[in-house]
Amino acid sequence: MKKFLALLALSASFIQAASAQQDPKAGKILDDMSAKYQAMKAFRANFTQTLENDKAKVKENITGDIIVSGPKFRLKVNGQEVINNGQTMWTYLKSENEVNISDYDPDDQEVSPSQIFTLYKKGYKYTYVQEAKEGGQAIDIIDLSPEDRSNAVYKVRIKVGKADKSVKSWQMFKKNGNRYTYTIKQFQPNPPVDATTFNFDKSKYKGVKVVDLR
């Protein structure tokens, strides 16, 4: 469960751009895409995550909903709810009516539906692959490769709309043969959020068991 949540938990750190060794065409597209999302005070997205492993003959689909504002997020996926206010993370398990509380450490996280917008800025080399069409829309395809060879992820492929610079989907390829595809289904810029959006309100979860792991 921890590994699964790590794939979806959010990290929003804004770091200096990578070195001049990077592909300039890919860098321009990624900079335009990143600026689009960072200009928003918040956003909400419905997405589908597909896990595939050809060797193991595995293909699984789950859907999720996420609200993001800076380092804060609220994620609902697969009977779980993960809430992060930038310092504390609450993981609510509906089937158990239990919430686990832990300190939030963005360094523990992997690729996520929010981190994808700034992922390229540190620790990855990027390369322009090609232009293509999907759903009647022109897209640019860019590959990211981690500089750290010990990284369990060996490639991230991002598809960006040419017209609106929005992320349409991305794939994460792992050394164990797993391939995760995230596809954005609906996107809402600047949804209404307040302090209660990114905090766990125990009173709304009758009889919930609290497990404090801090």
UniProtKB/TrEMBL annotation:
Superkingdom of the organism of origin: Bacteria
Alphabetized InterPro entries for the sequence: LolA/LolB/LppX, OM_lipoprot_carrier_LolA-like
Classification via Gene3D superfamilies: Lipoprotein localisation LolA/LolB/LppX
Key words, A-Z: Lipoprotein, Signal
Pfam families in the record: LolA
Keyword Signal listed: yes
Keyword Signal: yes
Signal peptide residue numbers: 1-20
Protein name according to UniProt: Outer membrane lipoprotein carrier protein LolA
Native source organism of the sequence: Hymenobacter aerilatus
